[in-house]
Each structure stands twice: as C-alpha cells, then as structure tokens.
Amino acid sequence: MISLDAALALLADAVTPLAREEVAIDAAAGRVLAAPVRARSASPRTAVAMMDGYAVNGATTVPDVPLHVIGESRAGARFDGSVGAHQAVRIFTGAPMPDGTDRCIMQEYAVREGDRVHFTPGFGPEWHVRAAGSDFEADTELLAAGTRLGPRAMVAAAAADRAMLSVHARPRVAILGTGDELAPAGSAWQRRDAIPDSVTHGVAAMAGQAGGDVVVRSTGGDDLHALEAQAAALLAAADVVVVTGGASVGERDFARSMFATHGLDLLFAKVAIKPGKPVWVGRARGTWVVGLPGNPGSAMVTARLFLIPLLAALQGQALSESLRWRRLPLAAPLGATGSRETLVRACWDDAGLRPIAMQDSGAQHALVEAGWLIRCPAGQAAVPSGQTVEALSFALDA
Fold first, then answer.
1. 3-state SS string over the chain?
2. Which of 15, 72, 206, 257 has the fewest CB atoms nearer than 10 Å to its CB?
C-alpha cells in the first residue's frame, strides 16, 4: 500500500489534459478554460453615470443657478452633442457621460421647470461617475487558463465580449457496477438476495458535477469472460472507465482481471486509507481506469479523492483545485484512529464539524448527511471538540 499523498502525487504526474476545442459561450458553462480570456475592450468603454440625474460640468455648476437642459443620455442611446457652460443633459444609470460633462447630480437634488433645471444645496460631494476602464482595460486577462466557468466566471467571460472560448474537452466517463447481486433500482425487491445498484448512480452524479460526460452507466455479473467483453466496449467508448466492486482479492473479484487482457498498467493498487483501501487506478488501451470498492461509503469517499481529481486534471486543472482541504473546528469529539489514515464522514452545523454516528462503509442512508470528510492521520489520538481539523467538502463547489 501507498499513502494518500503518494497516490495523488503519482496521479498528478501521470495525467495529461485532453485536447482543447472552441465552443460558443452559450455552451461554455461548467467547462474549463484551455486558454486565458482577455477583454476585447475596456469596461466601461466610456465614462458612465452611476445614478439617474443630470450630467453637468462640475466646475461651473453651483446650487440654485439654473441650467439649460439640452437633451438626454440613456444606456445604449447616448447624447451625441457637447455640453457647454450653464447646460445640462438628463442622464440615466449606465448611460455614457456626454462630452463636456464630468459629474452626475442625482435627480433627488434637481428642480426641473420645462427645459431648465437647478439643484438644491447639498448635492455633493459624490460625483456619481464610473470612469472609463475603471473595471478593466482592453486586453486585461479576466480569466486564467484552468478556470472552471461557473456562474461568476461566466459573467467575466461574457464581459470580455468573446463569442467563442477555448476549453478542454469534457472527459467521457463510463461506469460499471459489478456483482451478481446488483439489480436496477426499482427491481431488486423482485429477486431474492438482490440489492439495488446504488453506487453507480452516486458516482455518475459526482462525475457529472465535475465536468465529466457520463456516456455509459451499466452493471455486470461475476463472470470474467463477460466482463472482459464489457471492458473492451467501455475502453473504446470513454476517456475514463470507473468500475465499482470486485476490488478485493476474492475468487470472484474480477475488477482488475477484466482489464488484464486489455493491457492494464497500474499506477497504484491499494492505498493506506480507511475506508477505501482497495481503490486502484491504471490505464488500459490509453484509457484511464479507476477501480472503486463496492461498498457505497467506500466508493463515494474514494471517488471524491481520486476520480474527481482525475477528471479535473484531464480538463486542465491542478489536482489541488478539486482537493481544497480546510482547517475547520470540531463540534463533537473525534475518536482515535488506527494504523491507516482515516477519512471520517461528518456533517456541518453552527458549531462546526460533527462526525456522523454511522461510519460503516456499507451505510447508504448516512451518506445523505455526510457533507464533509475529516482527514485523520494514522495513529492519531482522540481529538476534543473545539479543536480544528483538516476537512474536505463532498460538494465540489465548496
């Protein structure tokens, strides 16, 4: 066995990002940039009003002295003329400031009579003008390569005035649950000794959140020849194949054997963690293969630790982008750990992290409340509440 850090270091060194492609900005949400996004123009391109009011020359405007209103400026429909002394232009929020003006006086201070306006005392001191380029200048890098285009990043991408963006291809993910006992959800009750195939649904949802394109989600029984044929099809269809179950060394554990005839080259097999020791990662026919334990808790923990970073790296992100460990307080005591590094499932409340009561790797209901993983080194003594611990969110955007 190797340590968690050693396994992740091997993965980081081995992954090459997928090819880049150009996509329309309307289809770019959730993708990872393969090249920086630079602004086509400054923002704002010209000085604009920050309030509804009147655009004036600040040096020649004084309280109670009337000005001649010679037009108006709206966002998208500027006043094209020039404003002289003792003149003003009605202006609205976001509208370009006319030539000759440098101040927007809020309409609350304005007294309008026909085409004349004067301003009551106390209309300062703010000038309520957003300067040209005050947000960013032309050719400013707004987003770096490797940025995932979430909602806030999409605002910046569109603000750059770019219709097309260079992104990495989405990894195609195939997921196979193995075991004679598995049955499609909704049908297990009809067959004695069957259990619903729950793990592949959780892994598929997690892969989708991480930018993967789940092209196959299926199950296979404990028949090596049949599994070898399934492996061939999955390797041809995907950039990453995830197989759940059959990861141990029993007589009917075929997860690795099914890829052996396809040239499986292991990156690592077995990691000194609890839960999830049997997890393994390798390549076969140029396709990444991730072997997860069959128990739901173990499978979801190891998918979070290894599959999600793999998908991130294939999309041009550093592994650290998907493994943001934080120091957070404990709301309840944490027990001592044994000989392996332990990932304790926990929930969050107003007092901090609270380890959930059910830590069994086969537990499924308990996964609903397990929003965090607390990282506990091997041989760690019990930790009292109030102390800080290292933790990773199950939610990919936390």
1. CECHHHHHHHHHHHCCCCCEEEEEHHHCCCCEECCCEECCCCECCCCEECCCEEEECHHHCCCCCCEEEEEEEECCECCCCECCCCEEEEECCCCECCECCCEEEEHHHEEEECCEEEECCCCCCCCCEECCCCCECCCCEEECCCCECCHHHHHHHHHCCCCEEEEECCCEEEEEEECCCEECCCCHHHCCCCEECCHHHHHHHHHHHCCCEEEEEEEECCCHHHHHHHHHHHHHHCCEEEEECCCCCCCCCCCCHHHHCCCCEEEEECECEECCCCCEEEEECCEEEEEECCCHHHHHHHHHHHHHHHHHHHCCCCHHHHCCCEEEEECCCECCCCCCEEEEEEEEECCEEEECCCCCCCCCHHHHCCCEEEEECCCCCCECCCCEEEEEECCCCC
2. 257
The structure's pTM equals 0.90
Closest CA to 293 of 284, 283, 304: 304
List the domains of the chain with CATH numbers.
4-17+170-322 (3.40.980.10), 20-43+135-168 (3.90.105.10), 48-130 (2.170.190.11), 326-393 (2.40.340.10)
